[in-house]
Amino acid sequence: MNHRALSVLLVLVVACGSPPAAEETDGLRRGQDATLTQQQTLAAADAMFDFDPTLDPTKTAQQNAAAIAARTMSSLPCAMVSASGTTVTVVASNCSGENGVTLSGTITASVVKTDSPATLTVTLTFTNVVLNGSAVSGTMSMTTSNGTTFQVTYDLTRANETVTGMLTAVGAPGQITTSGTIVNGGTSALLTSVVWKKGDCYPSNGTLAVTVGRVTTTYTFSSSTPSTGVVTTARGAKLQLPAYGSCPSQDGGRP
Q1: Helical ranges in the chain per DSSP H
Q2: Ramachandran quadrant class, 132 (left: phi over 0; alpha: psi -120 to 50; beta: rest)
Q3: What pTM does this model have?
């Protein structure tokens, strides 16, 4: 899922459909805050190892660490990458990767392998890291038995708030699909089959259900969302995700 697309301000879309209610606008704003770190850190992980795949649980932890180092050198050529045994360290300053992530700070990847059955766990530690303008610290752990399907857990801090969660991330050529829950500052965001195609401004499929107190609002991404930034609520109201850089288009993303 796109890691730069979400910020803190919404623009209402002038389009057909019901006008958004206040709780729908507030829910999407809070949902963006809750999912922003998840999206950015998955993009950083993808820059270090492809989800489709780089990792191979049949190989040793050291061999997989070497593969992570090689992948990172290719996708982030502006970063300093070093490998020692089962640990890879990436140091960058405003370094842009091929999948759109811009990174400053230090990320350390530690690889652990277990047998019977063979699984790999890669833990990323973020130290003084800024991903696409958002400061992130803490850890993110990803466990896989096949190199393409990962169980992901978060223990992070963003904007002085704790971000926790558990997701399943499934890689395929050119895209990542995520499902699971992220909690940030009392807001729960449930992602269901959310598809981000690498290089797209926004997700192109799936739903985001945001719970604030007793109110849950569901937002749906569509094939037009990457180019327009528009999501739809269950009532048919349309909301526009905020523009960033040249995304979603030069006209501000209006359909």
Answers
A1: 22-48, 61-75, 225-228
A2: left
A3: 0.83
